Amino acid sequence: MLYDVVIIGSGPAGYTAGIYSIRAGLKTIILEGENYGGQLMTTTEIYNYPGFPDGISGAELMENMRKQCINQGCDIKSENVTSVDFTSNEKHFIAKTYKSSYDSKTIIIATGATAKKLDIPNGEKFWNRGISACAVCDGALPVFRNKQLVVVGGGDTACEEAIYLSKFGSKVYILVRSNQMRASHHMKEKVLNNEKIEILYNTEVIDVSGTNKVEKIHLINNIDKIETTINISGLFYAIGHTPNTSFLNGSLALNTSGYILSNNTKTDIPGVFVCGDVQDYIYRQAITAAGSGCMAALEAEKYLNGSK
Ligand code: NDP
Fold it and tell me: Is residue 137 among the annotated active site residues?
């Protein structure tokens, strides 16, 4: 079967592209990955997505978008794309998964971005033994209950994770490497008003230690160089993201941070479009991802109609 549009990745960008593409009458499949829904699946309540005056959970928003795609007639497969052949002699593209391959006249990439990890000596040893990059996924585990916990980062994610963890831990430290947080005013206020949360500025992680799981974190103040050790049970990274482009094997132009370069969702290969966090290092919001998914589908439709 030859599709008009293969959408790689899910999340608000991929599902919105799916809704617009199928409603344009284009034969559409979403290769949503084994873990569909993207980063919003691990977010708590979202209050800034228009249309939900009382907020909505990230997972519910994604379920709704996914259902909307299915109801409109999109094919969906929960398969990870391992490579894309952009050079087929048949003049169409081939997206390959570990199970199958999908031929398409256009490709829309919506693979999002993945949370970054700190590079510390015992980081890998204690990964999933007290270290996590997702408080919402792991924070409620018994091992973190009534314990001291640490979140690294000074952005909105760090604030959100710390607030979430404060429901379970006895105390939550937020480590900020500079002398200021880059989180939004609203998030900072919430953190500052939470008596379980303490912010340590100019503080970096040297390492963690323990026997079978994290028991201590070793810190340094990068101004006075004083080192301290705190007893903790959990270390949560909230230090930004890496765009998910490895399956492209360098076929598309990227910027210096690894995000796909695009112009109104068009990549440097005609017929290949991109939307969402894999190309957006500035806004990175659910609503901007969804908006760019809509743009990518409209551009794909124009391309298929021969009007570039
Ligand atoms: P950000 O890029 O905004 O913040 C990353 C933070 O991690 C920065 O404070 C940065 O420090 C710090 N950092 C990076 N590398 C290291 C390191 N090696 N060691 C220590 N600290 C480090 O990422 P977020 O994930 O917080 O947010 C991404 C986007 O998503 C933002 O636009 C944000 O507004 C949005 N968002 C919105 C939410 C909501 O509205 N509910 C919730 C979560 C995110 P420095 O400042 O020094 O560079």
Answer: yes
Distances (CA, A) of 45 to 34, 41, 195, 198, 280: 23, 11, 21, 23, 22
Please list, in sequence order, all residues whose beta carbon lies within 8 angstroms of the beta carbon of residue 53, skipping any fewer than 6 positions away: none
Task: Provide the H-helix boundaries in 24-121.
Answer: 58-72
Question: Hey, what are 218's tokens?
Answer: 């070793």
Whole-angstrom distance, CA of residue 204 vs CA of residue 153: 10
45-46 and 56-57 beta bridge pairing: antiparallel
Q: Is the CB of 177 under 6 A from ligand 1?
A: yes
Helix (H, G, I), strand (E, B) or coil at 234: strand
In this prediction the pTM is 0.76
Q: Is 11 in the pocket of ligand 1 (CB under 6 A)?
A: no
Q: Ligand 1 in contact with 155 (CB < 6 A)? A: yes
User: What's the gap in Å between 183 CA and the centre of ligand 1?
Assistant: 7
Answer whether 258 contacts ligand 1 (Cβ < 6 A). no
Q: Give me the catalytic one of 69, 74, 134, 275.
A: 134
Mean pLDDT of 81-106: 92
pLDDT in tens, 244-292: 999 999 999 999 889 999 999 999 999 999 999 999 987 878 999 999 9
8 Å CB contact between 296 and 13: yes
Helix axes 11-23, 286-304, angle to 10 degrees: 40
